[in-house]
Design brief:
Blueprint: H1 5-13, E1 22-25, H2 28-35, E2 42-46, E3 59-62, H3 65-75, E4 79-80, E5 83-84, E6 88-92, E7 98-107, E8 112-118, H4 125-131, E9 136-141, H5 149-158, H6 166-182, E10 185-195, E11 201-203, E12 207-210, H7 221-225, H8 231-238, E13 242-245, E14 250-254, H9 257-269, E15 276-279, H10 286-297, E16 304-311, H11 316-329, E17 336-342, H12 345-353, E18 360-362, H13 366-376
Parallel strand pairs: 14-16, 16-17, 17-18
Antiparallel strand pairs: 1-6, 2-3, 2-6, 4-5, 7-8, 7-10, 8-9, 10-11, 10-12, 13-15
Helix pairs in contact: 2-3, 5-6, 10-11, 11-12
Bound molecules: guanosine-5'-diphosphate and manganese (II) ion.
Length: about 375
């Protein structure tokens, strides 16, 4: 779950990380009312979940109420890389002497947390990594040992920051580490982490991704309320289907989460890519199958559909009848490949046989069906 900057700053503040005082506004009048309680100059920042807002004109300094009206009016409604600005965050502007970068994330390969710290903040870290990789000091952290003060100080020294920033940065890194671990974040990034002319260090931006699987441990209702949801997922969830939207071209329908995941793996194995994960659960009657096919059919990414059903309590002939009935109800744009196995598979395949065409193909094995579905979707994608 990705947070907006203002939410990321609330999250940081709850772990004691210093941020500038401010508030959110969704209209110009709200923006004006908000700055009555702040000192000028203020900075007005577009709240969109994409970087490079400054360059796009989404970050402006305002020295008086007139400028607040002007900039808030311009930024609200602005389009930044396909994201429409609905909210601005306004905070007391900071004087900047230096801009640093700091983050924690997980390095799956190393089975450790990875901290990154750089004296070259303010710009996208990917650019620093590409042009000047030595400017990023990396620290792998064993989750059991945690971030010791000693390791933290050595890490800050390796990043060659201004020495007067050392104590402030060490303190913030320890808090950021706690926010990352105890806050159940997948990413906690401050860019820029600034040093002011007075020698103070604080977070000027916040990029936080929370692990949604840990939401039961936290009160994240406010964060969840503002999530932009995938339209395909909304439609599928409304039908009670277990669906996750993906970026590939093969639409997947399977019964059981394990089989659905294996289906994604097999599609990948033969060089294709799935447009979704969809588990229709135990039963595969016409009702459920028609609902699943509708969801898949409404996804323009889908170039072929792979239905992978293993009959258990639901028998193969019931499943086949369900598929045939569903096809009478939904006008499907993409060709369908079906792999039916398990209880009464022969009976089921016999039913499908009478409806076969170049748009409806039944194959006995998962691998053969996956290969056909990938071929029908335009061949290997990698
Ligand atoms: P991003 O570019 O979308 O990541 O937005 P940031 O919040 O990181 O801001 C981009 C840049 O705007 C920063 O690197 C700063 O140079 C500048 N900026 C943001 N807030 C302030 C502020 O309070 N004072 C000053 N002087 N510059 C700011
Ligand atoms: Mn930034």
């Amino acid at each position: 779950m990705d947070l907006y900057e203002y939410q990321g700053k609330q999250f940081f503040a709850s772990f004691g990380i210093p941020v500038s005082p401010g508030g959110v506004a969704t209209t110009v009048d709200e923006a004006v009312a908000l700055v009555e309680g702040l000192e000028f100059p203020v900075v007005i920042k577009a709240q969109v979940q994409v970087g490079g807002r400054g360059k796009a004109g989404g970050i402006k300094l305002a020295n008086n109420l007139e400028e607040v009206r002007l900039h808030a009016g311009n930024i609200l409604g602005m389009d930044i890389k396909g994201h429409t600005v609905r909210i601005v965050w306004i905070e007391k502007a900071s004087d900047i002497a230096e801009e640093y970068y700091a983050s924690f994330t997980l390095d799956r390969g190393a089975k450790k947390y990875l901290g990154m710290l750089s004296a070259e903040g303010g710009v996208e870290i990917e650019a620093v990594a590409a042009e000047n990789p030595d400017a990023i000091a990396r620290l792998h952290i064993n989750p059991v040992e945690g971030l010791t003060d000693e390791a933290c100080r050595a890490w800050v020294a390796a990043a060659k920051l201004n020495p007067i920033a050392t104590d402030g940065v060490v303190e913030i890194l320890q808090k950021l580490y706690r926010a990352y671990v105890e806050g159940d974040a997948d990413l906690a990034e401050i860019n820029p982490l600034i040093l002011t002319p007075e020698g103070k260090v604080h977070a000027l931006d916040a990029k936080v991704t929370l692990d949604a699987n840990a939401s039961f441990r936290h009160d994240w209702a406010d964060y969840e309320a503002t999530q932009v949801r995938d339209e395909r997922e909304e439609a599928a969830n409304a039908k009670g289907l277990q669906y996750v939207g993906l970026e590939g071209s093969v639409g997947i329908i399977a019964n059981g989460a394990g089989l659905a995941m294996s289906t994604l793996d097999v599609v990948n194995q033969v060089g294709g890519s799935a447009a979704n994960f969809l588990d229709i659960g135990g039963g595969a009657n016409a009702e459920v199958m028609a609902g699943a096919l509708e969801v898949i059919n409404n996804d323009p990414r889908v170039k072929s559909i792979f239905i992978n059903i293993f009959g258990g309590i639901t028998r193969g002939d019931e499943v086949a009848n369900g598929i045939v009935a569903a096809l009478e109800r939904v006008d499907i744009a993409a060709p369908i490949v079906i792999r039916l196995d398990g209880t009464n598979a022969d009976e089921g395949r016999a039913i499908l046989k009478t409806h076969e065409s170049d748009r409806l193909i039944s194959l006995p094995t998962m691998i053969a069906a996956a290969e056909r579905a990938v071929a029908l979707a335009g061949g290997k994608s990698k």
